[in-house]
Automatic annotation (TrEMBL):
One of its GO terms (molecular function) is 5-alpha-androstane-3-beta,17-beta-diol dehydrogenase (NADP+) activity. GO terms for cellular component: endoplasmic reticulum membrane. GO terms for biological process: cholesterol biosynthetic process. This is DHB7 reductase. The lineage of its organism: Eukaryota, Metazoa, Chordata, Craniata, Vertebrata.
Amino acid sequence: QGLYSSVVCPGLVMSNMTYRILPVFLWKLLMPIMWLVSGSTAVFVKAPLGIFASSVWLFKQKPEYLDSLVKYHSCTSGLGRCYVEPRKMDVDEDTAEKLYQKLLELEEQ
């Protein structure tokens, strides 16, 4: 019916909503560690708008060309450049196909 579904991971973003998860004193202890880690990992998105990188990128793609077994991650380079990284999901393709066929059967009922 022309509907497509993809999985997107926005990454980790430090925002005012994130700060409410833990008490303030814990964030003061964790922030230096988070910034050190952010230089070595791509999933810590430094720019708040970077969380939309994978969603916007995905929106611009032709859905029929996307891999349904891939998760699209918003990432940031050490220099702050936002990009999208596709990563294969740990999914058993045979089981996924059986589930899909079962869903089609249920839809017909």
